[in-house]
Write a structure and sequence with these properties.
single chain, about 120 residues, alpha/beta, three-stranded parallel β-sheet, about 10% strand
Length: about 120
Amino acid sequence: MAAHTPAVRVRRVYGAPSPDDGVRVLVDRLRPRGLAKADAHVDEWPKALTPSTELRHWYHGPEGAYEEFRRRYGAELAAPALARLKDLATRQTVTLLTATKDPSTSHAAVLREEIEGAEE
């Protein structure tokens, strides 16, 4: 059997779980609105990996810019929790879940880059 590099995915938490999601990790600081805990099918919720309240407010305010947000969030990431996800991602698929409307310009995308950067 050929070697397989597990995937790191970013999905909205409101979508239906997929059998190939692997470990489902909620990466938002707050519980998603309107979604029952059981319906989210979350395996882990490492709040140490979520952006600080101050950073979230700045990013969603009038001065927030994605590139600067990426830099600031990267500086905030908690090393032990990040190391755990990097380790998980070497062994199985990890799906990062967020309630963000556009996951491609969210902290989840930055987190994915951080995790995948360790695999290279």
